[in-house]
Structure formats: structure tokens, C-alpha cells
């Protein structure tokens, strides 16, 4: 059976580096959305919690419930207010016009749009948003923003920091002290030092993928393994798989392994050279539940660096990782 194997010491190493940069375990909001970037939310969440992380962020309430046993604080980033908010979770206010739809008493963080123009209230609306949230009986516990290009050398980051500083001042004036502010994702955390009045909100760095300069010295956590379903000699001139895309120019030993695009791998079409971590070439079109490849024995490491697949398919490591099906078994070793 295919499996995703997680390296515990690499994961703890990354958490340690992130916490050191943030100024302590209490300063880290660990982003565990999308099944912990494909690594397995409950598995990774339990590990992070036993390491000492108390705060995580997720996409929605389904994800929040899965992680509820492990974390003291869970922020739901993409929440759509519905009047049924739980007192166990903290919800992002992503749109000023939806504040009245929250259940009274719900705990919220105000998302501030400082330039990205995705979610959040504009800096000019922060006062009105806070007043309206308080008038509606919401508990404002914090505020945050998201950088649109923290991994690029441009002035955007600095513009957004300045805008967020203005927003924080307004929130403090209205709500007082003791609030949780956060803005730095992985790239921004790598790039800049500890912030006196902020938490960091880090996702991909914990899995070992540097986004800026790898100043944290991160280690990749996951490797994806597949198992051999069958093997054969492909004779010179014979072609393997759908559409006869790959034809042998001489007799060769090939094997079929038990992972395909139905398991969330990006679909290799047989064009171009894509190799496993061990250097075996994938051969022909990938099937739904299997791929064909130069024979590497019973077990093959498909990748231990998602960037190899991301580069091949013209995408990013996040995309490769989050697509991995929850049905693939996962374990720490
Ligand atoms: C996904 C996400 C993050 C984490 O980003 P990384 O680049 O993985 O560190 C932080 N904040 C928000 C709002 C996000 O959606």
C-alpha cells in the first residue's frame, strides 16, 4: 500500500526553528489547513500539540473539529458566518457586511485587507468593523493581515506592514490591550525577525519548504512511497499503458506501482522526463490508481521533495502536497 512517511525529527526541528524565530512556542499559530498541507491533520496536529504548540489555524469548521482535541485555540480562516458559531473556535471576520450574521458572543479576529484585496476589511473600515462587531456582541480577540508577496523582493511587504500598524493602532484604541495580532506567513517569518507585538502564522515552513532564503535551515518532512503491483519485461518495440505512449527501444524491466492521479498525484501524461526520488523514469501515461516506471523493486520513493513535481508541472509545492488524497496512509517514523 502506498504511504506518506513523515520524519518526526525533521518536523520537530522545523517547529523549533520557527518557534525560535517567532520568540517562543506561545507566539506561533500553526496553519494546519487542507489536511495539514496534505501531511495528515490529526497526525501532525497531535505531534505539534505534544511539542507545545497551542494555537492553530484552519480553513473551516470541519477541519477545526478534527483538531479540537489538540489545541487550546483554533482560528478558522475562511469562515462564512452562519449564526451557529461555536464558543470553542475563533472566527475570522472577512467581510464587514457579514458581521451581523455571526452568533452573538462569538470570538473573532478581524482580517484586515492591507493590500492583497482578498479577504478582510480595509484599513479605513477597521474602526467601523470593530464598532459594529462590538455592537453585535462579538468578542474581538485579535486582528491579522496577509502579505500578498512576502517571498518576493518588492516594497509590498513594507507597505502592508505600515498599513497593518495603522490598523493595529485602531483596534487597540477600541478594544484595549491583550489582543493577538499576526501577519507573518512562512516567507515573511524567514525573511524578518521576531516582532515584538505579533504572533507568526506559519504553514509550509513547518513541512520543510523554504519560501524565501532558507535562513531557518528547514528539513523536509514527508516522503511519498508506492508499492509494486506487478512487474514484467517490456520487449523491444512493445508499448506500456494507455495510448501506447511509451515504447521500449530495447528489452527492459518495468513495474507498476500503486499510486495514480486518483490518489492526488498530478497526472503525468508521458511527455517529458519525470523521475522518482530514486531516479527511475516514469513511463507512459499515468493511470488513475497506478503509474508505470523502471522497476525499482517492491517499494519506490515517488518523491521526498514536492518541488520536483511542482517544477515539472509548472506549479508550487503547496499544490502538489495538498492534492495528496486523505486515503493514502500516513505515519511518523
Ligand atoms: C495558508 C495561509 C497561511 C500560511 O501560509 P504559508 O505560506 O504556508 O506559511 C497564513 N495565513 C493565511 C491567511 C493563509 O491562508
UniProtKB/TrEMBL annotation:
Q: Name one Pfam family in it.
A: Ala_racemase_N
Binding-site residues for substrate, renumbered to this chain? 118, 288
Query: According to the UniProt entry, which residues carry N6-(pyridoxal phosphate)lysine?
Result: 33
Instruction: Note whether Cytoplasm occurs among the keywords.
Output: no
The record's GO CC annotations read: cytosol
Q: Which GO terms describe its biological process?
A: D-alanine biosynthetic process; peptidoglycan biosynthetic process
What EC number(s) is this enzyme filed under? 5.1.1.1
Cofactor(s) named in the record = pyridoxal 5'-phosphate
What keywords does the record list, in alphabetical order? Isomerase, Pyridoxal phosphate
| Alphabetized InterPro entries for the sequence | Ala_racemase, Ala_racemase/Decarboxylase_C, Ala_racemase_C, Ala_racemase_N, Ala_racemase_pyridoxalP-BS, PLP-binding_barrel
Q: Which SUPFAM superfamilies match?
A: Alanine racemase C-terminal domain-like, PLP-binding barrel
Molecular function (GO) terms for this protein are:
alanine racemase activity; pyridoxal phosphate binding
Q: Where is the Alanine racemase C-terminal domain?
A: 221-333
| PANTHER family, A to Z | ALANINE RACEMASE, ALANINE RACEMASE, CATABOLIC-RELATED
Question: What protein name applies here?
Answer: Alanine racemase
Amino acid at each position: 500500500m502506498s504511504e506518506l512517511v513523515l520524519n518526526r525529527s525533521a518536523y520537530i526541528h522545523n517547529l523549533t526553528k520557527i518557534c525560535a524565530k517567532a520568540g517562543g512556542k506561545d507566539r506561533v499559530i500553526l496553519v494546519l489547513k487542507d489536511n495539514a498541507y496534505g501531511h495528515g491533520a490529526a497526525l501532525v496536529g497531535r505531534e505539534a500539540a505534544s511539542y507545545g504548540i497551542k494555537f492553530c489555524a484552519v480553513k473551516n469548521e470541519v477541519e477545526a473539529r478534527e483538531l479540537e482535541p489538540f489545541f487550546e485555540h483554533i482560528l478558522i480562516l475562511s469562515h462564512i458566518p452562519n449564526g451557529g458559531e461555536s464558543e470553542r473556535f475563533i472566527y475570522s471576520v472577512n467581510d464587514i457586511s457579514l458581521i451581523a450574521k455571526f452568533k452573538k458572543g462569538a470570538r473573532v479576529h478581524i482580517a484586515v485587507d492591507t493590500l492583497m484585496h482578498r479577504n478582510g476589511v480595509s484599513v479605513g473600515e477597521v474602526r467601523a468593523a470593530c464598532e459594529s462587531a462590538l455592537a453585535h456582541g462579538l468578542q474581538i480577540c485579535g486582528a491579522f493581515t496577509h502579505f500578498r508577496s512576502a517571498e518576493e523582493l518588492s516594497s509590498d511587504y513594507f507597505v502592508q506592514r505600515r498599513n497593518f500598524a495603522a490598523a493595529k493602532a485602531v483596534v487597540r484604541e477600541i478594544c484595549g490591550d491583550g489582543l493577538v495580532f499576526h501577519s507573518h506567513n512562512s516567507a515573511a517569518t524567514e525573511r524578518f525577525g521576531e516582532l515584538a507585538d505579533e504572533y507568526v502564522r506559519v504553514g509550509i515552513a513547518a513541512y520543510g519548504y523554504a519560501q524565501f532564503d532558507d535562513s531557518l535551515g528547514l528539513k523536509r518532512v514527508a516522503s511519498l512511497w508506492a508499492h509494486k503491483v506487478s512487474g514484467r519485461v517490456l520487449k523491444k518495440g512493445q508499448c506500456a499503458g494507455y495510448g501506447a505512449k511509451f515504447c521500449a527501444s530495447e528489452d527492459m524491466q518495468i513495474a507498476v506501482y500503486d499510486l495514480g492521479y486518483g490518489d492526488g498525484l498530478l497526472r503525468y501524461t508521458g511527455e517529458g522526463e519525470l523521475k522518482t526520488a530514486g531516479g527511475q523514469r516514469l513511463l507512459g501515461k499515468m493511470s488513475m490508481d497506478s503509474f508505470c516506471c523502471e522497476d525499482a523493486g517492491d517499494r519506490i520513493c515517488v518523491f521526498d521533495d514536492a518541488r520536483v513535481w511542482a517544477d515539472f508541472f509548472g506549479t508550487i509545492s503547496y499544490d502538489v502536497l495538498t492534492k495528496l488524497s486523505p486515503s493514502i496512509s500516513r505515519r511518523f517514523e
